[in-house]
């Protein structure tokens, strides 16, 4: 066995096929072993990759070989991981013969413990010894991904989009504000108010007789585990005794605000020195309280024929100016997200301005300070399947930042919520599609036509679109929209990401789909989970890992080799230098009379 292990190790060292693995990636381990790679296993306690001292004594090696492998201080494969590996299906021929066991891999790992790995696949770059990292040829992570893979960083990066592309950010990214910064804090308040005015006009037009349409009665009990109820308001029609009548000029004030906003959108205020007229034209505190009564308590609104015509005219002009008019809905719901958390942790929805400000009350700081919260306009009119909300997890790989080179994966999957979609109830079972959130609601099934694991492949989605008579929407609208949004995000963040030759990274972008099939980028995740949570993800996650290895390893020696479902998204022409974009650029001037 020692002789056999030595032969394999010598061949692997000669061919530069030593790898290290950190994290739950049994597929990567099995695929690399099948290619003749030898793993340098990591100590189980710390799982930290460090340079080992050389000069191991010969008798230690002989003792190790004679005893069949002393596993003390070495990584012992997790039995559960072994079971998962046995269940995985792969088309490639297995490198190990029937006599191979974990013992021989442990032995080979001992033999290469002084070798610098040629390939590292890690779940966290900070676990790698800084002195050793530059010596590893291929690493699956990039440093400093804050500008791309945190909610605050992505929000800030995309604000620089006009420097790279003449594309309106509001056409693919729901409006987002970093509440830790004074300018964006005030901009959010103004946006909330303007959206409330538009929503009031929409509600006024949707009245049928004296009853509001589209309202639902709340269930007797809607408590959900793990949801911060104190910060969630529910739009529920009032069934209690009648309250005082609405402020009679409410609709007129909403029309006034919207007319002023149209003037701002048309640049009619370009020379003004005062704050936006939308901030001071009406008593906003009173207006918002009256709006809440109409939107969330079902209070009646009566319109004259003239007012109805005015509302229709104003809303039509606003729709022509505002790209997100179609996804706004009419309840003015916003979603608050911790700026640097993942898996849906800490996310809450709010319908009242005071709720948002109370939740995020912390002293606003300068631009050098990172904020704790971002607030984003909630997509109130998403495309649903069987009245169930879903999002799309879309993979892509970046193999270089300078020049920017990105690859798009043609397969993806849909994640469904566990309860039917409703804007009257804002619990996470209806609104947060994260698998880590929805696994709390395994017993809930939104519709019998959806699978119990609440996951669809993109092929199942395309079949559903064909049933709707929208078979071409996938290739004509959705896929091009996702590609464009990903590329725009990469261009905006590239100057702030740590670029390292030989590194690559697999990312997971999350998208919502609007009723017009337009994709909306929500966030981009580094190190997306590869743990199979369903039959679909078991197959797709294995495939994307296999194809990623083909892309970053095989393609080096054979540019025409198969890279599976990957396709080139963008390759930038090499340039001699790249100018950094400053965030504090300013244009000054004076008005021309």
Automatic annotation (TrEMBL):
One of its GO terms (biological process) is cilium assembly. Residues 42-101, 211-244 are annotated as: Disordered. One of its GO terms (cellular component) is axoneme. Residues 49-63 have a biased composition (Low complexity). It catalyses: L-glutamyl-[protein] + glycine + ATP = glycyl-L-glutamyl-[protein] + ADP + phosphate + H(+). Its main location: cytoplasm. Keywords: ATP-binding, Cytoplasm, Ligase, Nucleotide-binding. The keyword Nucleotide-binding applies. GO terms for molecular function: ATP binding; protein-glycine ligase activity, initiating. The keyword Transmembrane does not apply. It comes from the Eukaryota. Pfam families: TTL (PF03133). It is found in: Cytoplasm, Cytoskeleton, Flagellum axoneme. InterPro entries: TTL/TTLL_fam, TTLL_monoglycylase. Residues 83-101 have a biased composition (Acidic residues). PROSITE patterns: TTL. PANTHER family: PROTEIN MONOGLYCYLASE TTLL8, TUBULIN MONOGLYCYLASE TTLL3. This is TTLL3 monoglycylase. It comes from Cisticola juncidis.
């Amino acid at each position: 066995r020692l002789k056999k292990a030595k032969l394999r190790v010598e061949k692997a060292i000669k061919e530069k096929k030593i790898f290290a693995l950190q994290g739950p990636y049994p597929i990567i381990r099995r695929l690399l072993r099948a290619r003749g790679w030898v793993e340098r296993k990591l100590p189980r306690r710390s799982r930290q990759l460090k340079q080992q001292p050389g000069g191991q004594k010969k008798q230690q090696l002989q003792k190790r070989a004679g005893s069949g492998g002393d596993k003390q201080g070495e990584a012992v494969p997790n039995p559960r991981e072994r079971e998962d590996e046995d269940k995985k299906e792969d088309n490639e021929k297995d490198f190990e013969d029937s006599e191979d066991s974990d013992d021989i891999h442990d032995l080979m790992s001992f033999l290469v413990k002084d070798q610098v790995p040629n390939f590292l696949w890690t779940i966290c770059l900070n676990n790698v010894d800084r002195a050793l990292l530059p010596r590893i040829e291929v690493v699956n992570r990039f440093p400093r991904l804050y500008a791309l893979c945190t909610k605050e960083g992505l929000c800030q990066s995309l604000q620089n989009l006009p420097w790279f592309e003449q594309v309106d950010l509001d056409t693919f990214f729901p409006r987002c504000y970093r509440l830790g910064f004074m300018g964006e804090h005030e901009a959010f308040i103004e946006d909330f108010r303007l959206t409330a005015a538009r929503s009031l006009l929409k509600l006024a037009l949707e009245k049928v007789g004296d009853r509001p349409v589209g309202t639902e009665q709340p269930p007797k009990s809607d408590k959900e585990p793990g949801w911060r109820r104190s910060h969630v308001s529910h739009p529920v029609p009032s069934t209690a005794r009648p309250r005082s009548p609405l402020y009679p000029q409410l609709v007129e004030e909403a029309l006034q605000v919207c007319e002023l906003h149209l003037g701002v959108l048309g640049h009619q205020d370009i020379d003004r020195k005062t704050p936006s007229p939308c901030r001071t034209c009406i008593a906003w505190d009173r207006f918002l309280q009256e709006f809440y009564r109409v939107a969330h308590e079902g209070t009646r609104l009566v319109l004259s024929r003239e007012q109805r015509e005015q509302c229709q005219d104003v809303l039509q002009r606003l729709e022509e100016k505002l790209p997100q008019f179609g996804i706004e809905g009419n309840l003015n719901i916003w979603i608050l997200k911790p700026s640097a958390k993942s898996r849906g942790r800490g996310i809450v929805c709010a319908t009242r301005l005071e709720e948002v400000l109370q939740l995020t009350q912390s002293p606003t700081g300068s631009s050098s300070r990172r904020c704790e919260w971002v607030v984003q306009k909630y997509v109130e009119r998403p495309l649903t399947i069987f009245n169930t909300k879903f999002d799309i997890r879309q993979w892509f790989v970046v193999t270089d930042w300078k020049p920017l080179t990105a690859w798009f994966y043609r397969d993806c999957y849909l994640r469904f919520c566990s309860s039917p979609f409703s804007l009257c109830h804002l619990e996470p079972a209806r609104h947060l599609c994260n698998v880590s959130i929805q696994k709390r609601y395994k017993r809930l099934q939104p519709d019998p036509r959806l699978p119990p694991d609440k996951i669809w492949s993109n092929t199942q989605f395309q079949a559903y679109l064909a049933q709707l008579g929208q078979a071409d929407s996938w290739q004509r609208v959705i896929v091009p929209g996702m590609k464009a949004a990903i590329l725009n995000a990469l261009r905006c963040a590239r100057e702030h990401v740590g670029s390292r030759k030989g590194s690559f990274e697999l990312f997971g972008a999350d998208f919502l789909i609007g009723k017009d099939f337009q994709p909306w980028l929500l966030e981009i995740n580094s190190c997306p989970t590869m743990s199979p949570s369903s039959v679909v993800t078991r197959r797709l996650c294995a495939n994307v890992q296999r194809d990623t290895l083909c892309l970053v390893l095989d393609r080096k020696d054979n540019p025409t080799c198969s890279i599976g479902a990957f396709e080139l998204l963008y390759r930038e022409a090499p340039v001699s230098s790249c100018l950094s974009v400053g965030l504090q650029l300013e244009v000054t001037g004076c008005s021309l009379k």
